[in-house]
Write a structure and sequence with these properties.
The protein is of the alpha+beta class. The protein contains nine helices and twelve strands. Strand 2 (113-117) and strand 3 form a beta hairpin. It has two domains: 23-63 and 173-297, no CATH class; 92-170, no CATH class. It has helices at residues 2-21, 27-38, 53-63, 67-73, 78-86, 135-146, 151-154, 235-245, 285-290; strands at 94-98, 113-117, 124-127, 166-170, 181-187, 190-198, 205-209, 219-220, 223-224, 251-258, 264-270, 280-281. The strands form three sheets. Strands 9-7-6-5-10-11 form a six-stranded mixed beta sheet. It has a four-stranded antiparallel beta sheet with strand order 1-4-2-3, covered by helices on one side.
């Protein structure tokens, strides 16, 4: 497992370095090669006639990375857009925004908070106790974030021109270090499925439900969540606000957290889940979900 992970990291670094200097006309070739490697040369990426979910996400990465997607992928700038469309009450309280690590005044931050890079994915530091914060680690992570343009990892081009900043948000929790994630998968401007995710600090698990909260027979990536999740009493509210946010997009995943008091907090707009390398189980759902995406002309 260790050797496999090291090899994967080496491949990712190689593609990052090549893509960062590659002329844009060669992006399709690079993406086809990466796609083939990711699937151990058992699949080829068809960009001319994409059919599966993963193929269509790859197509959207290359040919539909619009300015509005760049705006909404920005963890800071998206906040104003969310406020205008569904209201400030759905935003996680903001504690600060900075251009550089040296600008952060940790003395004014509460004991618990979350640091995020505005220009990336999975660039988060969850601070549960500021008194025991490993500052050397934080400095190293943030400075590495700010040198990285994640658009070049797998050509998610909507990230390419986002200004690298750091934000701090209020720490959210349900109980026992849990935070319940409700990710609404939207196709052609309408919600279709909700993925519930939990146990992020143990081994992340997920389960899909339809709009009536019936359990679905597919999963992607994390382990299947076996126990039944109670239907949220504000499911209609969740679907309504997700429906407002997903309009005009052929595909977007709109992420929310649901707190113990039932309130919903916006997480992010995700246009390319898993970079278009979703491990659908059973595998036929790759094509079934792909059929729901109508690509822009």
């Amino acid at each position: 497992m260790y050797i496999k992970k090291r090899l994967s990291n080496c491949i990712s670094i190689l593609f990052y370095r090549v893509n960062s200097v590659l002329p844009a006309r060669f992006y399709p070739f690079s993406l086809k090669l990466l796609y083939s490697i990711k699937w151990k040369f058992q699949k080829k990426l068809d960009l001319k006639n994409p059919k599966t979910f993963n193929e269509k996400i790859q197509w959207l990465k290359l040919y539909d990375s619009t300015p509005i997607k760049s705006l909404l992928a920005d963890k800071y700038n998206v906040r104003e857009w969310i406020k205008e469309r569904i209201g400030n009450q759905y935003l996680v309280p903001l504690l600060g925004v900075w251009d550089r690590f040296d600008d952060i005044n940790f003395n004014v931050l509460p004991n618990r908070f979350v640091l995020k890079a505005t220009h990336g994915s999975a660039m988060n530091i969850i601070v549960k106790d500021k008194a025991h914060l490993n500052m050397a680690y934080v400095i190293k992570e943030i400075r590495q974030w700010q040198k990285t343009n994640i658009a070049f990892w797998s050509l998610e081009l909507c990230y390419k021109d986002i200004k690298p900043q750091i934000i701090a948000e209020e720490f959210l929790e349900n109980q026992d270090e849990e935070l319940y994630d409700y990710k609404v998968w939207c196709f052609n401007g309408k919600p279709h499925y909700i993925a519930f995710m939990a146990e992020r600090y143990n081994k992340l698990k997920m389960v899909f439900y339809d709009l009536e909260w019936n359990r679905m027979p597919f999963v992607s990536g994390p382990q299947q969540y076996e126990q039944e999740i109670p239907k949220p009493d504000n499911l209609r509210e969740l679907l309504k606000i997700a429906g407002i946010l997903c309009q005009d997009f052929s595909h977007v995943r709109v992420d929310f957290y649901r707190l113990n008091d039932g309130s919903l907090k916006f997480g992010e707009m995700t246009f390319y889940p898993s970079g278009g390398f979703c491990r659908w189980r059973p595998p036929e759902w790759d094509e079934k979900l792909g059929a729901l995406i109508e690509l822009p002309k």
